[in-house]
Amino acid sequence: MSLVRRLVLLLLLLPWPAWAADRTHLAIETADGRSLAFSVEVAETPEQQTRGLMNRASLPADAGMLFDFGMDRPVAMWMKNTLIPLDMLFIKVDGTIAGIAERTVPMSLEVIASPGPVRAVLELNGGTSDRLGLKVGDRVVHPVIGHRP
């Protein structure tokens, strides 16, 4: 096998995770004083929000996707074509977590509604909220939400 063919084969076999593109840093500040760091993709456009984390076989433990809706509004999510369970954190404009949907069911068409108007939704691996002890009232800090006064 030629060197070029070997290189092409190697490149095809290397995983290129979709989550690696355009990530930003996000922190969750818990009521007990912890600051938990995540690397997130931001879904701002309708196309990005529609696609979300669909068709991804895995997500690193410290990664997620932040859906920024620009202002507080009622939000409805679903798990269509989403292969992995997720936790969905519903976030108010000030960064406060208003609700958490834990371990959502992969591929489900069931609507997962926000508990009221929210600015954003943070999707993390299913079970992350329980594992880290995340609660309603904790605060998300990211350049698009949760700025400190």
Give me some keywords for this one:
two-stranded antiparallel sheet; Jelly Rolls; 9 strands; alpha+beta; 149 residues
What is the strand and helix layout of this fold?
Elements: H1 3-13, E1 23-29, E2 35-43, H2 46-51, E3 63-73, E4 76-77, E5 86-91, E6 97-101, E7 112-113, E8 118-125, H3 128-132, E9 139-141
The CATH class: Mainly Beta
SS class = alpha+beta
The number of E-state strands comes to 9
Radius of gyration: 17 Å
Parts with pLDDT < 50 across at least 5 consecutive residues:
6-21
Please give the order of strands in the largest beta sheet.
6-5-8-3-2-1-9
Most strands sheet: 7 strands, mixed
General form: globular
Q: Which bin fits the share of residues in helices?
A: 10-25%
- State the end-to-end CA separation: 62 Å
Number of domains: 1
Architecture in CATH?
A: Sandwich
Q: Kindly state the mean pLDDT as a whole number?
A: 85
What fraction strand?
Answer: 35-45%
Which fold name corresponds to the CATH topology? Jelly Rolls
Helix count, per DSSP? Answer: 3
* Helix-strand pattern: HEEHEEEEEEHE
> CATH homologous superfamily - what is it?
Protein of unknown function DUF192
Report what the structure shows.
The protein has 149 residues and is of the alpha+beta class. It has a single domain (18-141), classed as Jelly Rolls. Helices cover 15% and strands 36% of the residues. The chain is built from three helices and nine strands. It has helices at residues 3-13, 46-51, 128-132; strands spanning 23-29, 35-43, 63-73, 76-77, 86-91, 97-101, 112-113, 118-125, 139-141. Strands 6-5-8-3-2-1-9 form a seven-stranded mixed sheet. Helix 2 (46-51) links the parallel strand 2 and strand 3 (63-73). The longest helix is centred in the N-terminal third of the chain and has 11 residues, at 3-13. The protein is globular, with a radius of gyration of 17 Å. The relative contact order is 0.21.
